[in-house]
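Shipment paperwork, digital attachment
Item: protein structure file
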Amino acid sequence: MDLGAPHGIRFRFEAGLLRAVLLDVHRKPPVDAGEELTAEAGARDLLVEETRDGHVRAVLRQRFDLPVPARWQLAVDAPATVTADGVSFALPDSVALRVSGSAPCEVVDGGVRVRLPAGESALDVTVISEPVFEVGDTVVVCRPDQLREAAVVVSCLPADRVTPVVALRPGDASSHRHDRLVAHLLDTTGVRRAVFLAEPEPDEELFGDLPERLHLPCDDQPRAADLAALATKAWELLRGGGEPDRTLDVAPDADFVAALFTALRTGAALRVDDDAPPVPFAEHNPADGDEAVLVEGTGEVDDLMAAVYAHHRGARLVITPKPDLAAVCAVVAEEQERVTAAAGAIGDAVKGIGFVEALWRYLSSGGHDPYAAVEAVVTAQVPAEVIAEVGDRALTAFTTGLPYSFVHTEDVNWARKPIGHVVADPALVVLTELHRAGVAREPGAFSLVFDSGAFTLGGDGNRTAAPETSVGQLRHHTHPIVLSEQDSSPDVLRGLVVDLPVELVFFNCHDADDAIVLGGHALPDDDIPVTLRHRPIVFNNSCRSWTRLGREFVRAGARGYIGTLWTIPPNLAAGFARTVVRRLTAEETPAARAIVNTGTPGGIERSYLYVGTVNGRLDEWRDRSTTDAEAALTGCELLAAAARDRTGPLAPVLHREISALREVAGAGEAAETPAYAEVLLAELGLEDDDERAAVLVERVDGLLSGLDLPEDELEALWATRFELTGDRFERRGEYGAALADFERCVGLGDACRDRADVLLRMARLLMREGRTDEAGQAARLAYEEQRVRDDRPGQLESITVLDGLGDADPETALRYAVEGHDLAEELGDRARQAEFALAECDRRRDRGDLVEAIEAGSRAVELFRDLGDDRRELAALRRLGACHRDRGDLETAQHYAAVGLARAEQVGAAAEVASFHDDLGGVLTARGEHGQALGHYRHAVEKLVATGAWERGAELLPHLAVGAVRAGDPEALWTAALSGGLICEVAPREVWASVVPLVVDSMKRAIETGPLELTERGMTDFASAVTAGNREDMPFQVGLLADVVVVLLAWLMDRADTGIVAFARELDRTSGGVFDLVGYVSVPYGDRARNPGTGRSRPTSVGPR
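Attachment content:
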């Protein structure tokens, strides 16, 4: 029995006792650990916990409950050290084992012993495995032409590890990616010092994070004596003095690639000497073995990486002259045109293998090799002795761009030879390979397939199930995610490769120019905007430059790149890709081998080349016990973690894949585990369909009810369930149900994953129901939890809710505003910073702290202006003006009102235009300039009525009416009455109830103070605009005004008889006496009006008329 994650450190038990620790996670051999336990009764619980932080740490927790004392002992074949809490063992391959527990640990011969007492006790066995990388601790940095100098320095370093050599080159579009990735790999693989033979550009901080930077400056044209001195300096600097045990003399004009390789093979340091004999390269070049490394002699330092890599692999090193690529590129371009023309000539009528055969016949022109021209031009660049040196070996070619798979002579054909082409950045390629060989295997693996519709997978019609990638003895589990054109986009690619351990990416979607197209967006050929965190192999069916795209994807993080020399139709490319993907994953075949001998037509297979070393492959799964269900469950967990914070187009893709894998996981024993419950909950969080969600909730409830878990673990699952269902209810508008589930979630205490967030959501729902006391309590609890955790963003959310409640005392309300402002400023949330500044302005103004209020209001204005929020800027300007008005600074108040009015007119904010007119009216009134003030009041109300802002118009209507009285302007009173009547027609009761009396009063005052002509016109306009039509069809309030008009018209015509007076009395009763029509009409018009018109003048004496 094994305990522990299949992808991690596992503890192997036999007959109930620990026997070994399995370290497949780091590709290390098992550690023998023999356990003895004398207890014959009692209880023993076992649990494995694992964490990763560069290293992998697994803890086997044992809990005992024994009736009598017992002895526990573990045999470990390694030196033991007593520590503060137990005993530690240092094992080979950077593995440590530690035993600790509640009882003392003692070192015994060959292991550790613990005497367990009767009753409860605890014992932990902790194993920590560090990654081991076959990379030395030093990187050599130099100019491209410093090949001899770099070779000398590398030879002075230990040969049992790879020493990277990095050339300083002028920057290009993606060199920043190269430098950043190389720096990361150097740091991760344990490189701690850089030796600079030349200085980088002054503004270029290269490998600045390395602890040690050494400098060995060299002349531009060093002589033999200079190179000899360099060897001495390098040895002293890097080895701390003394002399090397062995040296290899080399002439200044010798082949330093061969010389470095020989030095590494013999463990010698290079020493430059004019009289040195020839380098014994052939003597020490391995003749046996099935691997060769070929390097084109460019004369630059990149060639040295071939020698270093060949030595690391124990491969035969073959050096060949640099090829002339101009002729090769011309022939390949011609072949591309031939293939395109042939495919066009055949057309869409011929499908599948028939198309391949037709294409082959078309290109071969009578049965001859269709690629003879390419083979001839490539072979011409490779000397016969080089071809013979390589022989039948698999080949890594460090090349400037020659496709070596087209080497073909009478006796040799490399068409099916596994060949990896290192076309650029050799240090990066080699470091990536060595890094992946040392790091821990990922918990799961995914493949991304961006396809135009031709790529299909098996699995009984289930597109996401891929038996061919998970069957066989190797049990390499990878889950393919097929993305159609609708699913695809550069953002989706970026999100998936960051969030998931993606080991393979296949592009089969291109435009007419053969660019990779994702959702209508073409990826650039240079500086590809993606970071491939998990170092996948990229497989691209496109004839864009294979060397250029290969380099760019490697710089983006790929461990290798499969590309084509010419375009292959998508359906044929998909068929070839299915075979290659199966070989890469299920068979764990190195990529260079996976693309040859595939059984597919040669015309297709030969189109593809691999950029990388011949050993480039996906991570190996040394654990062969993982079942399909276990792998699917792990995949679900990874997808769920990725989906947790993802929205937008990526969310439905992740949801779809979780659902598919969950079905696979549910077919095995995993369906009754806590991990499966977590997957169901993750899927529930992504599900939009109510019926499917209900099914998931039912399954979750049934599973949780039957799980035998510690209370705290089970409550955590229930809390998540209630949080998710509460969220679903809230989104559906079922606020009562949402609140109930949130309360259940919070009621589980610390089991609630994010209790503060749930409390805040409760607070908002309680506010919605008007339960402000409970809402405030929930928000304060949330704030306190966030304060304890120093969760600054959470505190800002809580303060926002508390401030929005509006039920705090003035001192607390001000504190909320100030604290909210400071938190928002700290977090860079300028929108909320501005809102809280405005709230602070209001609260300080309410307290009479006008200087501080003005300072806060000024901040708010600037913040809203910077944000481009015109309407909130205008609101802040109004508050600022009000503060100055309260302070008595009417001139400044008028300035802000005028500035605000101009700005409101500029941005077309009608309501704000009206408000600023009203503000100006208020300032002018305070200054006693009633005539000017009235003009602004009139503009304000007319603007609001014209734009249908009835409620705001009702608010400002009294200002117009009072302003008209102060200015003695009866015409403005008629404007107030008419505007109020129009408002009453459509406004709700809570609005018109206060407007109707104001309308009646304005008419009465207008009649009383205005000339008869104005009165007649005013009554006519009002009647036609407000009270026209059948009385029975009018709303109550309009009918009421119509009745008032009837009374006033009768009175104006001196017809206020007993019937009219009785009618007026009834209207007064209806208005609660507010209208006072009886008292008004009791005085004749001629006596009440100041300007009654000709023949209706006021009498000059009292007495009966």
